[in-house]
Design brief:
The protein is mainly α and 221 residues long. The chain contains 9 helices and 2 strands.
């Protein structure tokens, strides 16, 4: 049985498969996608998991949170020597990024249990363990916590309701014959739809919902 504590023991081949699936989900599997600044966001996203951190080359100032002040500056620098060098760094550290993703998934469980209502903790842990025991379920955990977070921050709520891994695990139902990954994907669709419904209208989050649903539906493929 693959438990959460055993997740970090994944083989290099398993990490390679996970890293390329996440790279496809976040960046379209392209080298250019390793350095992105999405429209409507206030930060640059780097690496296969669109992290907002990276061990920076020497030409970047450690005290600066981002070398580009705006998305316009970032887009203008897309073909610069510095951006090319940053992509080289990110492409060369894919395995390290994959290990970070797995580690984040493993560390999510205690955070979620601490934040969850006491009467939900056993269900959350049971659902987490069910998913971690199957290849598709394990990938769903790794990808979703990178995609929408742990769901433990009060700042990540609309109308008091979150959209992270915690909320998806809470919402998983029971269905005879359905795989853990299928139950997870179903709950994730509901959680993401609720987020869009609760979002401030000026954010226009409905523009992203179809893509989000397609992403979580792929967990069962």
């Amino acid at each position: 049985m693959l438990t959460a504590s055993a997740a970090l023991a994944l083989t290099p081949r398993e990490l390679d498969v996970i890293s390329h699936r996440v790279w496809q989900n976040e960046c379209g599997g392209t080298r250019e996608g390793l350095t992105s600044w999405n429209s409507g966001e206030n930060f640059a996203s780097l690496g296969i998991g669109h992290f907002i951190w990276v061990k920076l080359p020497l030409w970047l100032k450690p005290e600066d949170p981002c070398p580009w002040n705006t998305r316009a500056e970032f887009v203008a620098a897309a073909k610069s020597e510095k951006m090319t060098g940053l992509r080289d760094l990110l492409a060369a550290t894919v395995s390290v990024q994959a290990r970070f993703l797995v580690q984040r998934m493993e560390l999510a469980l205690p955070k979620m249990l601490a934040a969850a209502p006491a009467n939900q903790r056993a269900k959350i842990k049971a659902n987490y363990d069910r998913l971690a025991n199957t290849p598709r379920g394990l990938f769903a955990l790794i990808d979703y916590v990178n995609f929408k977070g742990e769901g433990t921050k009060e700042t990540e709520r609309y109308a008091g309701e979150g959209w992270g891994l915690l909320q998806v695990l809470e919402g998983m139902g029971e269905s005879e014959g359905a795989s853990p990954a299928a139950l997870f994907a179903r709950s994730a669709e509901e959680v993401l739809s609720r987020r869009v419904h609760n979002a401030p209208p000026e954010r226009h989050e409905d523009r992203w919902l179809t893509g989000w649903k397609n992403r979580v539906r792929a967990y069962v493929e």
